[in-house]
Amino acid sequence: MLSQSLQQRLQLKQKLSPLQIQTIKLLELPTLELDQRVRKELEENPVLETKEAEEETDNNKELSLSDYSSQDDSIPSYKLYVNNQSRDIKKEFPTFSVRESFHQHLEAQLGFRTLTDKERDIAIFVIGSLDDDGYLRRDFETLSDDMAFRQGLKAGPGEIEQALSVIQEFDPPGVGARNLQECLLIQLRNKEKKPSVDTARAILEKHFGEFTKKHYDKIIARLGISEEELKDAIEEILRLNPKPGGNVDDSYTDRAQQVVPDFILEMKDGEPLLTLPRFSVPDLRINKRYADMLLKAAGQSSRESKEAATFVKQKLDSAKWFIEALKQRQHTLLNTMNAILEFQKEYFAEGNETKLKPMVLKNIAEKTGLDISTISRVVNSKYIQTHFGIYSLKYFFSEGLMTESGEEVSTREIKNILAQSIDLEDKRKPLTDEELVSCLNEKGYKVARRTVAKYREQLNIPIARLRKQI
Q1: Bridge-partner residues for 403, per DSSP?
Q2: What are the angstrom distances between the C-alpha of 457 and each of 118, 211, 450, 460, 464?
Q3: Helix (H, G, I), strand (E, B) or coil at 263
């Protein structure tokens, strides 16, 4: 028999307000994306307008919702206006002119080949399938299916392979390869024939695995060559380009990544001066014409008038939240960056990396009184322009370790010492991780072998055996 009972449960749930949601979303955006977001809001919300647009109207009185408080008490009575920057000339975002792209460079070379229309179409499709490094990472069967689906072009694997062989003769040498081994061998085909080139080709064709693992003794034994001959052959290989796609103009992706600083730091009389850049996000305020519509509609009783009043009020509320969220974003960004500047004062004075103190998100959260999640949103994808370069805010955060003298140092400083130790090592006998631990201990840095291995991997430095040179 089933029993039924009534229970009372008390639950506390935090529900974010529309303003809080809006603020969180805007806080995550870097300068360039914020500009796009503001423009989108201006397009979608007719109640919003720029300060410049409002000043062009006959009545350019600054609008405040306090004028309408008698009509609807649910609308807060404070001025709805955000002044993003001064009235100085605005600084536009940098733009980049795009010259001939990598893929265009290859397609242009097809014009010098005698090909049928079908062969040309296949070759163009294959060129479009090359990645940014100039490699073809897809198999012929997949390309054949894709070609038929996208362009209605039927081409078998043999026809695709034939087109690829033509492309592999193009400039830059090595383009169209399916892997690193093939890329290097294609380039060797164009080299002047001499013993070192022949040996290099034999190494890549027959002993590529041993070469990548730097098992030089095995290569010497199997090819019956001297150490000097091996050295000459390796020098030939090292002159080759493993990424031929990047050999053409830097703009070959047809887009150049734009990094627009979110903060500008200048030194005035030895003191840091932090400002937000004057960029093209406009000063926003409420459109007076739509606010007047609210006044008129609120005094009428027809169904259409009430619907119009509801629509306009929704847009007014949305505009209010957006403007206030922009103001809060501005305040939070400056508050957070000023706390970082204060924490890392010695570093920002000179830009000396050794002066960077260990700093984590919690440190800045405690200084600002903000949540760690808020600090994380501020730091993510944001940049600062300083008198010694442009840096991601993430760059200034790192864990710390204790030296033998009890002084806390940044892990970045330890990584620098580690990289320097490896740079100075005897490349014929590279330092193992255990030997690197000893080097760091001698300099006063107490670290474990697994820590050295972790930092070495983060620096993209291979193990000792792979750093060996002859």
Answers
A1: 445
A2: 48, 21, 11, 5, 12
A3: strand
Burial level of 417, CB count in 10 A (0-12/13-18/19+)? Answer: buried
Same domain, 106 and 242: yes
The H or E element containing residue 265 is: strand 263-268
- Give one DSSP letter per residue of 110-142, joined into a string: HTTS---HHHHHHHHHHHHT--TTS---S-HHH
pLDDT on residue 71? 40
CA angle 367, 373, 379 (to 5 degrees): 75
Residue 270 covered by a domain: no
Residues 33 and 122 in one domain: no
Whether 91 maps to a domain, the answer reads no
Are 351 and 416 members of one domain?
no
User: Are residues 300 and 189 both part of a single domain?
Assistant: no
Q: What is the mean pLDDT of each run of 10 residues along the chain (470 residues)?
A: 54 64 84 85 84 53 41 39 43 40 84 87 91 89 86 89 93 91 91 90 92 89 92 90 70 49 86 77 75 64 71 83 89 93 89 81 91 88 86 82 62 83 88 90 84 86 84
Helix boundaries (H) for 45-101? 51-55
Domain end residue (candidates: 390, 424, 458): 390
Q: Tell whether 32 is covered by a domain.
A: yes
Task: State how far the Cα of 18 lies from the Cα of 317, in Å rounded to an integer.
Answer: 9
Measured between alpha carbons, how far is 116 from 133 in angstroms, rounded to an integer? 28
120 and 226 in a single domain? The answer is yes
Residue 90 lies in a domain: no
The total of structural domains in the chain comes to: 3
Indicate whether 231 and 120 sit together in one domain: yes
Identify the CA nearest to 111 among candidates 126, 98, 129, 124: 124
Report the C-alpha gap between 425 and 464 in whole angstroms: 10
Its domain, for residue 223, covers 102-247
> Is the bond leading into 172 cis (omega within 30 degrees of zero)?
yes
**Buried (b) or exposed (e) across 126-145, using 16+ Cβ within 10 A?**
bbebbeebbbbeeebeebbe
The beta strand positions in 284-440, using DSSP E, are 284-286, 383-386, 389-392, 400-402, 408-410
Instruction: Read off the pLDDT of residues 185-202 as tens digits, 9 standing for 90 and up.
Output: 999 988 888 999 999 999
What CA–CA distance (Å, rounded) separates 189 from 184?
Answer: 9
- How wide is the angle at C-alpha 201 spanned by C-alphas 196 and 205, nearest 5°? 150
Same domain, 295 and 316: yes
- Which run of H or of E encompasses 264? strand 263-268
Residues 166 and 29 in one domain: no
| Side-chain half-sphere CA neighbours of 73 within 13 A | 0
